[in-house]
Amino acid sequence: MTAAAPAQTEPSTEPSAAATTQNDAGGADEKISVTHHSLTLAGATINYQALAGTITAKDESGKPKADFFFVAYMKEPADKPANRPITFIFNGGPGAAAVWLHLGCVGPQRIALGTDGIPGAPPYKLIDNDQSWLDLSDLVFIDPVGTGYSRPAEGQAKSDFFGVQQDLESIGNFIRLFLTRYQRWGSPKFLAGESYGTTRAAALSELLLDRYGINLNGIVLISTVLNFQTIDTSGSNDLAYALYLPSYTAIALYHHKIQTADEDKLLAEVSNYATNDYLVALGKGGALDKDARADVVAHLARYTGLPPDLIDRADMRIDPDMFRKQLLADQRMIIGRFDARISGLDPSPAESEPDYDPSLSLFLPVYAGTFNDYVRSDLNYKSDLDYRILSNDVWPWEYKADQFGSYLDVSKQLRSAMMENPHLKVLVCSGYEDLATPYLGTIYTLNHLDLLDRIQANITQTFYHSGHMIYHDPISLKQLKANVATFFAAANKTGS
Predict the structure, then answer these.
(1) Which of 191, 187, 195 is nearest to 220 (CA)?
(2) CA distance 339 to 336
(3) pLDDT, tens digit, for every residue of 16-66?
(4) N or C, fewer C-beta in 10 Å, the chain?
(5) 255-273 CB burial, b ≥16 within 10 A, e <16
(6) Residue pair 140/89 in contact by the 8 Å Cβ criterion
């Protein structure tokens, strides 16, 4: 039996039975609901315990600092839970609850989508997730403070949580506390994050090691951003324009704005052009001669499907919003930021930027509706609080800190952790049609980690014909699970 927190009732032996229990280990306000379920993965039945509730983080004097909401799934029976891997999972934002990875990809239930990866009309439903990671590891989904049901304690300043370093410290402390409460210090340990969650995971790898002595076996980074210079097209930062270019090509191919007989060959060509000729040309600024400028414009038109005169007027710099607005402008359509395969009607064609993201507005109600039903009906957790899937309450977010540089860059924290812990393995997963975290930006960052060859070999990069939420594409969902399974096998030598 997986170790449970003190003061909980003995769980039922029936997988479908539910029991709500009070956990007083951290305070009377903590509430943990324990339910029991089963799932069939690859023909084998897994019985598991689900825990949904809050853990109160306190300072050294015992004063409450925040209530962290989490959902954990633990395989049953587990006579030796310390031998079973455990994975801590979060999304990004900042301001996103863990529901996206939870119900989209990793957990035992996921949202039902069509064969094209698009949800139908409401009401929405969940189905058994035949691609869940529960056969690989126990799973703990964490909602950072200000998201989901997680809240600062009464009288606690928001600024104590809503910033890069503050967030790392609070999530790191939650992980330490969970390992202690549930007696999992001996387990193989993993992190999995998406988007800003990859930023958090990379920096946490160093903080957990240096502050608490927690060495990780592996980290899964989905739709990665470690160095924010790679995605910032403001000011004089020409690097980001170059790193977005291959993503534009992949998206233009998807929407049939350009054609090729060999997509892989074309994407490799564009990546090479972007980080060489194009970046050099941008760096010359006004010193670039007329013929060279015309050559760049011609290349960009061929690679993006945008009109040459538009590219020339944009001074050869195509930012993501411009691309989203202009690629399908002849159809009065805009494309998504999170998933550029998805398009929507453009209500303001005369405006310079898109009014909304059709790939977000399409999915947000699906996750909101299914989670609010699931947490009450299946996990038996009751709360009248608003479950904040995407929270504006975390803003303004404090990005600036001396150790992260002028642009937020946590790659050196990941590098430090990998050098200190040479067993740490990293799986990096990128979508070609993602305009939030372009895949060449991730490649560029990892190529500049300056690791020894034998440490660099601990990083595995995988790519998918999908958007930011890679798992919304049914084929990519299966590819991702297969790649994660291979990764866990390599990173966890002790087995489960």
Answers:
(1) 191
(2) 5
(3) 333 333 333 444 468 899 999 999 999 999 999 999 999 999 988 889 999
(4) N
(5) bebbeeeeeeebbebbbeb
(6) yes
- Return the number of other C-beta atoms located less than 10 Å from residue 56's C-beta: 18
- Reduced to 3 states, what is the DSSP secondary structure of residue 131? coil
Q: Cα(111)–Cα(353) distance, rounded to whole angstroms?
A: 31
> Using an 8 Å Cβ cutoff, are 418 and 203 in contact?
no
In the structure encoding, which two tokens stand for residue 190, read together?
């993993």
Task: Take residue 350 and report the two structure tokens written for it.
Answer: 């005369």
Residue 375 neighbours by CB under 8 Å, 6+ apart: 52, 71, 381, 387
Q: Binning pLDDT at 50, 70 and 90, where does residue 235 land?
A: confident
pLDDT of 156-206, one tens digit each? Answer: 988 899 999 999 999 999 999 999 999 999 999 999 999 999 999 999 999
Asked whether residue 496 carries a pLDDT value surpassing 50, the answer given is: no
Spell out the domains of the chain, with CATH numbers in brackets.
18-229+365-491 (3.40.50.1820), 233-359 (no CATH)
CB 198 within 8 A of CB 223: yes
Neighbours of 493 (CB within 10 A): 9
191 vs 29: CA distance, rounded Å: 28
Peptide bond into 123 cis (omega under 30): yes
Q: Which residues pair with 429 in a beta bridge?
A: 222, 462
| 397 token code pair | 């977010």
pTM, 2 dp? 0.92
- In the chain, % helix, strand, coil (3-state, to 5) comes to 40, 20, 40
Q: Which residues fall within 8 angstroms of residue 377, CB to CB, at 6 or more apart?
A: none
Evaluated on CA atoms 377, 379, 384, 390, the torsion sign reads: negative
Residue 418: closest CA among 456, 447, 453, 448 = 456
- Nearest-CA neighbor of 131 among 97, 107, 159? 107
Tell which residue, 137, 135, 128, has the closest CA to residue 110: 128
DSSP state of 409: B
Distances (CA, A) of 235 to 238, 258, 352, 390, 447: 8, 30, 18, 28, 24
User: Going by C-beta distance under 8 Å and a sequence separation of 6 or more, which residues neighbour residue 345?
Assistant: 332, 333, 334
